[in-house]
């Protein structure tokens, strides 16, 4: 666009605008047109049309449900619809790559989880994005705590019992997971590195099949998402050994936290669900999106919906989320290297 002299333009427009307010408004709008569309003026009027929120998982799962709850409330605050677009596949990498390649204008966002950091650690450049540089964090909405479970009639009645057996020899204890590189797998591998003993990993195609094997007693234990576990506890199919939360869970007050049994900070292994934008999205837009999410997370009805899913609300600032993502990446990088975890390409 050719350079426009705003001083000359102001002089010319004086003849058209009879008062200071009119003149200022015209010059402001023209300044916005002249400036980069990603500059302050673009952020000032954002959003002017619907926003697309890309989710790398199928509809109906925890990440998708939380995204939809927040999108609905944030739409009301921002005055434009936030449309959830499910792009499942390749361990959420399809969605992540799409947002990474989108314009940094606040109209294409990512609602992601733990895999965003883990995939590049496992796959390197083949992941197709760099989680450290390709995104602008908005807020970590919530996390979904994991609980360590074993069969109801298992000989291991506590995590202490299980770990005592694990320390007797390598692979003396087995654990199931929903697949290599998932949250349950990595959490158990982290535990193995902390006790300095190898445990036997048995991966399955999803948490459901993995839990069935634990219930049967064919596998010793697993870290399972808290969602839906209460029904299996009530039916005496599983026993909870410990919970991966800062405080004991209200529904299982007699079950200790991992911190209580000697593993402080273990709650940070819980899969997180948060919102990000492409890198170089203006700070003013990031702040506006964060404000809308923070407002949603403060509402009793939103909190109630997320609590039913077993989610623990976080709602941190963009800077806090960025710091968390750095810690998250470093933690899983250390675990993956120490345990020799390989990508599951099947």
Q: Care to describe what's here?
A:
This protein is an alpha/beta fold. The chain folds into three domains: 6-34; 46-143 and 272-339, Bordetella uptake gene, domain 1 (D-Maltodextrin-Binding Protein, domain 2, 3-Layer(aba) Sandwich); 146-269, Periplasmic binding protein-like II (D-Maltodextrin-Binding Protein, domain 2, 3-Layer(aba) Sandwich), CATH 3.40.190.10. Helix content is 42%, strand content 17%. The chain has helices spanning 6-14, 20-34, 40-45, 62-78, 93-100, 115-123, 159-166, 183-195, 207-216, 229-234, 283-297, 300-308, 318-339; strands at 51-55, 82-86, 108-112, 135-143, 146-151, 174-177, 200-203, 221-225, 238-243, 272-278, 312-313. The strands form two sheets. Strands 2-1-3-10-4-11 form a six-stranded mixed sheet, sandwiched between helices. Strands 7-6-8-5-9 form a five-stranded mixed sheet. It starts with 5 loop residues before the first helix and ends in a 7-residue tail after the last helix.
Task: Give me a quick take on this structure.
By secondary structure, this protein is of the alpha/beta class.
Present the secondary structure layout.
Elements (H helix, E strand, L loop, with lengths): L5 H9 L5 H15 L5 H6 L5 E5 L6 H17 L3 E5 L6 H8 L7 E5 L2 H9 L11 E9 L2 E6 L7 H8 L7 E4 L5 H13 L4 E4 L3 H10 L4 E5 L3 H6 L3 E6 L28 E7 L4 H15 L2 H9 L3 E2 L4 H22 L7
β-sheet strand percentage:
15-25%
**Named CATH architecture of the largest domain:** 3-Layer(aba) Sandwich
If you consult CATH, what is the topology of the largest domain?
D-Maltodextrin-Binding Protein, domain 2
**What order do the helices and strands follow?**
HHHEHEHEHEEHEHEHEHEEHHEH
**Helicity, as a percent range:** 40-55%
Integer-rounded radius of gyration: 24 Å
End-to-end separation: 50 Å
Instruction: Profile the largest sheet.
Output: 6 strands, mixed
When the domains are counted, the total is 3
Low-confidence stretches: 1-38
How many strand units?
A: 11
């Amino acid at each position: 666009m050719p350079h426009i002299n705003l001083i000359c333009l102001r002089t010319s427009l004086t003849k058209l605008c009879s008062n200071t307010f009119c003149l200022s408004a015209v010059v402001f709008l023209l300044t916005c047109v002249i400036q980069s569309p990603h500059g302050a003026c673009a952020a000032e009027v954002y959003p002017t049309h619907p926003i697309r929120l890309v989710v790398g998982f199928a509809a109906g799962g925890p990440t998708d449900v939380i995204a939809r709850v927040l999108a609905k409330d944030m739409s009301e605050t921002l005055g434009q619809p936030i449309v959830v677009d499910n792009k499942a596949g390749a361990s959420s990498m399809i969605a992540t790559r799409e947002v990474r390649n989108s314009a940094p204008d606040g109209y294409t966002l990512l609602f992601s989880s733990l895999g965003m950091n883990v995939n590049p650690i496992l796959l390197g450049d083949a992941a197709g994005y760099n989680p450290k540089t390709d995104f602008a964090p908005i807020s970590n909405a919530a996390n979904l705590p994991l609980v360590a479970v074993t069969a109801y009639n298992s000989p291991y009645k506590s995590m202490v019992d299980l770990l005592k057996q694990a320390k007797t020899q390598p692979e003396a204890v087995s654990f199931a997971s929903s697949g290599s590189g998932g949250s349950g797998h990595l959490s158990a591998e982290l535990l193995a590195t902390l006790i300095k003993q190898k445990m036997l990993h048995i991966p399955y195609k999803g948490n459901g099949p993995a839990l069935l094997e634990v219930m049967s007693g064919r596998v010793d234990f697993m870290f399972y998402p808290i969602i839906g576990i209460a029904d299996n506890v009530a039916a005496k199919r599983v026993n909870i050994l410990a919970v991966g939360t800062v405080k004991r869970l209200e529904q299982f007050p007699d079950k200790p936290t991992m911190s209580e049994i000697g593993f402080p900070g273990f709650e940070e292994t819980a899969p997180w669900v948060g919102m990000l934008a492409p890198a170089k999205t203006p700070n003013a837009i990031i702040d506006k999106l964060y404000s809308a999410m923070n407002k949603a997370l403060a509402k009793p009805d939103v909190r109630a919906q997320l609590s039913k899913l077993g989610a623990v609300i976080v709602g941190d600032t963009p800077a806090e989320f960025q710091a968390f993502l750095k810690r998250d990446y470093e933690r899983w990088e250390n675990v993956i290297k120490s345990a020799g975890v390989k990508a599951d390409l099947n």
